[in-house]
Amino acid sequence: MAMSLPSPCPVSGRSDSPQHLQHPHIPAPGLPLLPDVGSGPHQAPSRIIIPSCHLSVPRLPAVPRVGGVSRSSRPEGTETPPSGARVGRWWPDPVPSAMSRRVVRQSKFRHVFGQPVKADQMYEDIRVSKVTCDSSFCAVNPKFVAIIVESGGGGAFIVLPLAKTGRVDKNHPLVTGHTAPVLDIDWCPHNDNVIASASEDTTVMVWQIPDYVPVRNITEPVVTLEGHSKRVSIISWHPTARNVLLSAGCDNLVILWNVGTGEMLLALDDMHTDLIYNVGWNRNGSLLVTTCKDKKVRVIDPRKQQIIAEKTKPHDGTRPIRAIFVADGKIFTTGFSRMSERQLGLWDLNNFEEPIALQEMDTSNGVLLPFYDADSSIVYLCGKGDSSIRYFEITDEAPYVHYLNTYSSKEPQRGMGFMPKRGLDVSKCEIARFFKLHERKCEPIVMTVPRKSDLFQDDLYPDTPGPEPALEADEWLSGKDAEPILISLRDGYVPIKNRELKVVKKNILDSKPPPGPRRSHSTCDSDFSQPALEEVLEEIRALKETVQAQEKRISDLENKLGQFTNGTD
What we know:
- By secondary structure, the chain is mainly beta.
- The chain contains 5 helices and 34 strands.
- Strands 3, 4, 8, 30, 31 and 32 form a 6-stranded mixed beta sheet that branches. Strands 5-6-7-9 form a 4-stranded antiparallel beta sheet, with no helix packed on it. The chain has a 4-stranded antiparallel beta sheet with strand order 10-11-12-13, with no helix packed on it.
- Strand 23 (331-336) and strand 24 (342-347) form a beta hairpin.
- InterPro entries: Coronin (IPR015505), DUF1899 (IPR015048), WD40/YVTN_repeat-like_dom_sf (IPR015943), WD40_repeat_CS (IPR019775), WD40_repeat_dom_sf (IPR036322), WD40_rpt (IPR001680).
């Protein structure tokens, strides 16, 4: 078969070798060729005739197609074909549809990033506790940061005002009173000056922290709660009811207390067969979710004292499981697979048998501590011993748990504190703040949404739970539920000085029975004999006479001393 090849090639400008005809601007066999390029003595002929047996077009590798267009079909960063290229097989339509442009899921939290504060804004020289426990070891509110520390001869934790950054004095006063190491601490959500602590000495203590820095250690709690027979490793305040505190110990017992009276409200003693790993409230405090060493997640109605839902082995591994309530009553869990890979799961109470989402993360062996921000539906996962914080957004769209980003650092964390939303700086678009514990310091980490405007961002800061309780303890115990009372952060939140100090003391003094000796005197007044009463009155008269005689003697001595002094002058 005759073959006519131009020389030189009108496209490449090179020799007529078939290899040089493999140019990206020459279409594949069967497609129209380039238009005529003209004729003349010094121009290429008007048509190129190439038999298919000599035309070799390289096959492109298979590449996933996004929006109907192959990723390899367009150079990176290029929106339109290069000048002179034909729109067709290799170059898609220059105006793609809206669906083809939607590659990344739209979210206002997609660019959230974490950043540590400067060195002078950290809390230095703090001896963080080395007790083996999966507690966070740190509790934060808009006024104070509290950290469990090493202490000889008992348990202690340190309370620092948020503004007192830098190196902490080694003689800084501590909160002491427990006779064994402190395992968990938690600030009251309705009083920024009240904190509860749980200890290996089987007791729970509630403390009133003054706004000023005390001169010496705080050793006297407002109230001591005794009811556990083994060490207490978990405490958690009720989110909406005043003075209701939960404690869970290694005796597999969950107790609800009225801190205002020091009384035990409820005891959930037959629901857990092994060690309790964690306990969490739902948004209005009507339900509890617990995880246990028997590999079960239980949802409990504490006032009815019954289990309303139960899931066995949400994660197949043997390591501890954590569970928290998230939006719409769903439950978020962290655990381990059978191959010791860390997992996260999302569950619906209406169908507790199958997870909504179940994802594997990595093979680290640290237990993941979940922190949930209900206003943004973001879950932050911090593993003890890890050096990173991963965060996920929970939505109603598959896959329901969307990975956002990871904050990474060099040093591992010993514990982590999580600031409530009302303690954040809204002028800097701060949506979360963590207090990362190192071996000898506490490092705040700020999570920020990048925004150019300095105005208040309504979409980032919906109304959030404030410090006012929605219920009293007796109302909640009687069966009443209420959502948290919300406040706006438009003008920022200013903590109230020494909030409700007198109210808490009044509750305890008015409602708590007096100590034994006083009670015995009040109940035995009718049996108090008349001769004994006269004897006491006679003794009082004698004491009065003695006091009067001493006063007269002192007066006489003063007069003599005055005369002696005047005589010598």
